[in-house]
Design goal:
290 residues; TIM Barrel; single chain; alpha/beta; 11 strands
Length: 290
């Protein structure tokens, strides 16, 4: 358990506020279960999606996360259309390494030539000369990890990416990758009710690596009208989702949640979670309920 801080240095020199914005929900109707959504086409309500992005930046969000596989690259294009030229200090994070042959398929594809191709396409779609954070979306078990990390390292060496991140990895994979090149971030599924990566969180904090939890709001726990989350939300006069985010922020100073939303009010609520200071007792009650 840590004292809540409001910023983190990615790769020791990119300062970001500790609530970012994930853009997966700004694609086709994720609904109530984003984990099962196709994420296949661009947003239909482009005006609203643009408003969400611009409002986020206006309110101080300076980490925006996307992927080449979100809406087959349309997510990256949409971000550029909405925000380019980018505000100074805005950090754009994208991911490569997943093929999308159909709406239901997310297939790890880590061949070096594919990773390079997708990174080059991301550069074009985002309208940048260098990607702030280039993440390996999934490790491809059919390709040596050294080859996958080596391909990303080459892009860094060429000045086409500033930092490398990994997604959905364990400590062993993280250590192997760090033996090849510095790793700035890890993005795993983690929240108050889904805590399979406790060891990765602790490892990341120890080594100065940002831990970016996707699906950071514990959907099931945060919707219950009874229990510690609901009780603490009432005590603090905040939403249950805000409590879930506040728990993450207190769990480790290395954690940078990236909640996604298509609703400006929810966006503002998410950002306000940075101002919630859970007591040690409240934190322990939430821990015990997980």
């Amino acid at each position: 358990m840590a004292t809540t801080t409001t910023n983190f240095l990615i790769g020791s020199h990119l300062p970001v506020n500790r609530i970012g914005l994930g853009t997966m929900r700004l694609t086709d109707a994720p609904g109530h279960n984003p984990a099962a959504a196709p994420i296949w086409t661009a947003p239909t309500d482009t005006e609203n999606a643009t408003t969400v992005l611009r409002t986020a930046v206006d309110l101080g969000v300076n980490l925006i996360d996307t992927a080449d596989s979100y809406a087959l690259g349309d997510s990256e294009t949409f971000i550029a259309d909405a925000l380019h030229p980018y505000r100074e200090g805005l950090v754009l994070a994208t991911k490569v390494g997943v093929a999308r042959p159909s709406p239901a398929e997310w297939i790890p594809l880590g061949r070096p030539e594919y990773l390079r191709q997708q990174a080059e396409l991301s550069l074009r779609r985002l309208k940048v000369e260098r990607l702030d954070l280039l993440q390996l979306h999934r490790v491809d078990p059919t390709v040596p990890l050294e080859d996958q990390i080596g391909a990303l390292k080459q892009l860094v060496d060429e000045g086409k990416a500033a930092h490398i991140g990994l997604s959905e990895v364990g400590v062993e994979e993280l250590e192997k990758a760090r033996a090849i090149t510095p790793i700035a971030t890890v993005q795993n599924w983690y929240n108050l009710s889904h805590r399979d990566h406790e060891d990765v969180v602790d490892y990341a904090e120890k080594h100065g690596i940002a831990f970016i939890p996707f699906f950071p709001i514990a959907a099931g726990a945060a919707t219950r009208e009874e229990g510690p989350i609901a009780d603490i939300a009432k005590e603090l006069n905040v939403t249950r989702a805000q409590v879930a985010l506040a728990w993450l922020l207190k769990r480790s100073p290395a954690i940078i949640p990236i909640p996604g939303t298509r609703d400006v009010k929810h966006l503002k609520d998410n950002i306000e979670a940075q101002n919630i200071d859970l007591t040690d007792d409240q934190f322990k009650r939430l821990e015990a309920d997980a």
